[in-house]
Amino acid sequence: MTAPVIRVKVPATSANLGSGFDSLGMALSLYNVFCVTDLLPKGEFRSDVIGEGARELTDAGANLVIQSYIAACRTWNVEEKGFCILSHNVIPLCRGLGSSAGAVVAGVLIADSLCRVGAPEAELLRVMTTIEGHPDNVAPCYLGGMTVSAWDGGELRYVRFQSLPSDMHVVVAVPDVRVRTKDAREALPNSVEFGDAVFNLGRAALLTAAWATGKWELLSWGMDDRLHQQYRARLFPGGDVIMDRVRDIPGCLGVAISGSGPSVIALVRGKPRRVAEAMCATFSEYGVDSLFFVLEGNAGGARIDRSGV
Ligand code: HSE
């Protein structure tokens, strides 16, 4: 097989981290790889998918990498060269692990590279966020680590934080049910109590400060939330109880619904197995199969290899 024209590797991400709705997120060491294998005439695309979504993501017209590539080309007013793309998907779909954001990041990076735009980091992230609609997955996906982002619908400001220490693990339990982000957003109320907004403000600020200073013992408070998780926990079996089942297990520093769910993420210092097993046992008790990943807390961001351009 000849070398791909462009190869992009993107990490999974976990957005919100509890209190930081639409603002905080972290990269996870689980990766999708997209290879542009051949160039085609302008506007022609072919897509093949291996792994997650292999049966349902075959339509090139509906492929989010290609759609994001086209959107980025139009933003930058450059010709939409056609291509064949092979996707190796590992990140589970519709589970709150940023598979869509990964596709957006890949599409924008392919446009930047193939069309020789050479956009700076802030412009790449602005375009990625515009396509995705919120920054909390695309920022850590592109930059790696944990990120804080603020978006006003046009401009973006962001900061990337240090990785977690090497003795900290990220446990992600993934149930065999899907929740679409659109549905999880529609489940949220139109307004919240002032006291709940104040609660989350303090928690998100504490979480960010804890991450910046390495005060990991503050994560359990910092990841607490009253804005969205109580509504989303009803959207998947076991959601109402799973976080309470693991919160007090020794070593568990914090637990949250990953993104818009239904996966659940726990940050664990020391041995992660008890937390992972408790999460999967809870899903089993509610009649749902699940699997867990024990991931690194220092995942890097998207990588692009342009050897064939
Ligand atoms: N912040 C987003 C949400 C992440 O919670 O809806 C999911 O895309």
Describe the structure.
The chain is α+β, with helices and mostly antiparallel strands and 309 residues long. The protein folds into 2 domains: 6-162 and 298-305, Ribosomal Protein S5, domain 2, CATH 3.30.230; 168-296, GHMP kinase, C-terminal domain (Alpha-Beta Plaits), CATH 3.30.70.890. It contains 10 helices and 11 strands. Strands 1, 2, 3, 4, 5, 6 and 11 form a 7-stranded mixed beta sheet that branches. The protein has a 4-stranded antiparallel beta sheet with strand order 8-9-7-10. β5 (146-151) and β6 (156-161) form a beta hairpin. The radius of gyration is 19 Å and the shape is globular. The mean pLDDT is 94. The protein binds L-homoserine. Residues 15-16, 21-22, 134, 136-137, 181, 184-185, 259-260 line the site of L-homoserine (HSE).
Key features of this structure:
2 domains, alpha+beta, globular, binds L-homoserine, 4-stranded antiparallel β-sheet, 309 residues, Alpha-Beta Plaits, 7-stranded mixed β-sheet, Ribosomal Protein S5, domain 2
